[in-house]
Design a protein that fits this description.
Elements lengths: L8 H9 L3 H23 L2 H17 L9 H18 L7 H15 L1 H16 L3 H11 L5 H8 L3 H19 L1 H10 L2
Length: 190
Amino acid sequence: MLSYSKYDDEQLLKLLTENDENAFSEIYNRYWKPLYHSVQNILHNTGPAQDAVQEVFISLWQRRCTVQIENLKAYLFQAIRFQVFKAIRADKAQANFYDRLTAVSREILQQDPILYKEMQQLIVSMIDALPEDQREIFLLHRTEGLTYNEIAVKKNISVKTVEKKMSLALRHLRMGTGDAVILLLIAKNL
């Protein structure tokens, strides 16, 4: 039997597209542990971390003949990031996930400065497009770091009104660019 451990990622990918289960097994054995540790460091929750890794490999196998992968390691780590965000959206993460999400978002943005600049410009234009009251409340909270209570006192409105305006502003941002904006906002603390 061939020793697939001697193959580099490019060779394994070629064999994978040819439905070689042993090549898939080698990819799995080579990357499951670093992917799992990456997710576990963010979610701190074994079940969702294992599920995320499993989803990445299931998707890789299902798409083996159609997906175009230039760098296997980069592809797998990007796929695991999407699974992390999916787990967070599904509320599988523990209560303090925002701190971990911030760290991951910063890492991603530091790795891709062009994406960072584009997202930053997009966010500024979307914030500018918010109705004035929503924009002001949003900026008081994100820029000046005021709590909802402090904003309510400053604006002479109820805390419920502040909550509603923030919710509307965040919904507008999510609809405009998806969860990437929220991740960037968290990372940059606008």
